[in-house]
């Protein structure tokens, strides 16, 4: 599935991921391939991408959660996510 993470200043990430874990108002939620369409607000926390790599151009924006798993995190203050047809856009600050 394709995920794009945007802030008002720049593109944080754009590429293929296995899944993404997001901080929602009612708790964290996981979006995986073939997930139902969703639009949701996000609270402060970490956006976690489950993927083999984030690419050289975006690596500076992420922290690798651990060496064993391929989980990369990006801290946000708030935002919104729209996901439909295996494509997601996360607008955040």
UniProtKB/TrEMBL annotation:
**Membrane topology category:** Peripheral membrane protein
InterPro entries from the UniProt entry: ATP_synth_F1_dsu/esu, ATP_synth_F1_dsu/esu_N, ATPsynth_dsu/esu_N
* GO CC annotation: endomembrane system; proton-transporting ATP synthase complex
- Ranges for domain ATP synthase F1 complex delta/epsilon subunit N-terminal come to 1-56
Q: Which SUPFAM superfamilies match?
A: Epsilon subunit of F1F0-ATP synthase N-terminal domain
- State any single GO MF term: proton-transporting ATP synthase activity, rotational mechanism
Compartments in which it is found? Endomembrane system
Asked whether the UniProt record includes Transport among its keywords, one would answer: yes
CDD domains, from UniProt?
Answer: F1-ATPase_delta (cd12152)
Kindly state which keywords UniProt assigns to this record, in alphabetical order. ATP synthesis, CF(1), Ion transport, Membrane, Transport
Instruction: Please state which protein family the record places this protein in.
Output: Belongs to the ATPase epsilon chain family.
Q: What does this protein do?
A: Produces ATP from ADP in the presence of a proton gradient across the membrane.
Name of the protein this chain belongs to? F-type H+-transporting ATPase subunit epsilon
State the species of origin: Chryseobacterium lathyri
């Amino acid at each position: 599935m394709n995920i794009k993470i945007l802030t008002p200043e720049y593109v944080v990430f754009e590429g293929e991921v296995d899944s993404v874990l997001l901080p929602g108002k009612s708790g964290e939620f996981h979006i995986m391939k073939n997930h139902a369409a969703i639009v949701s607000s996000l609270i402060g926390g970490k956006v976690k991408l489950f993927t083999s790599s984030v690419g050289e151009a975006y690596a500076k924006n992420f922290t690798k959660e651990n060496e064993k798993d391929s989980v990369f995190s990006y801290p946000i203050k708030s935002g919104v996510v729209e996901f439909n047809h295996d494509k997601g856009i996360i607008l955040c600050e």
